[in-house]
Amino acid sequence: MAYMETLMNYYIAEFFCGVDNHVKKDAMQNLILGDDRMSLKPKIDVFVYISKTHDLEWYKSFKGVFKELKLELIHIMEQRNIFAHRIIDNDLIYNDEPTPEGAIRFLSFKNSINKIDYTPERFEELII
Fold first, then answer.
1. How buried is residue 57: exposed, middle or buried, by Cβ count under 10 Å (0-12/13-18/19+)?
2. What gap in Å lies between CA 73 and CA 41, rounded to an integer?
3. Neighbouring residues of 73: CB distance < 8 A, sequence distance ≥ 6
4. What are phi and psi of 69, to 5 degrees?
5. N-to-C CA span, the chain
6. Domain boundaries, the chain
7. N or C end of the chain: which has fewer CB within 10 A?
């Protein structure tokens, strides 16, 4: 995910700074787009806007699971956030309903405890 985000950063930087201006592209990456300066969701919005308005042929060639680039990127971001920010439950906290066989359960704590189960089939969908 970090690699994909970096590629989006440089795509955005190339649009604003030009293909050959490596100094400005690197500066934009380091000073504006990099790490924690701009979150992933706004980068996705900018990336999709630029590709839709200035790289339409490439944009239309996208063939993902959701058939729309923005939906695909948001889905990837949401899945990444689960793995990065949720805890794994080993039936220690949410033990009123056991984790399905072969699944990994993540817990989200927002107004209540919410379980997010990743079965082998769901993992397979993420790989595709």
1. exposed
2. 9
3. 44, 47, 48
4. -55, -45
5. 14
6. 1-85, 87-128
7. C
3-state secondary structure of 87: strand
3-class secondary structure per residue, 72-85 = HHHHHHHHHHHHHH
pTM score > 0.85 for this model?
A: no
- If one counts every other C-beta atom within 10 angstroms of the C-beta of residue 84, the result is 8
The answer to whether the CB of 76 falls within 8 A of the CB of 48 is: no
- Per-residue pLDDT of the chain (128 residues), as tens digits, is 889 999 999 999 999 999 999 999 999 999 999 888 899 999 999 999 999 999 999 998 988 777 889 999 999 999 999 999 999 987 777 677 888 899 999 999 889 888 999 999 998 888 86
Distance CA 28, CA 8 (A): 12
Q: Treating both helix axes as pointing N-terminal to C-terminal, what angle do 40-54 and 69-85 enclose, rounded to 10 degrees?
A: 160
- Give dist(CA 72, CA 64) in Å, integer: 7
H or E element in which residue 99 lies = none
Please answer whether residues 117 and 107 qualify as being in contact, where contact means their C-beta atoms are separated by less than 8 angstroms. Answer: no
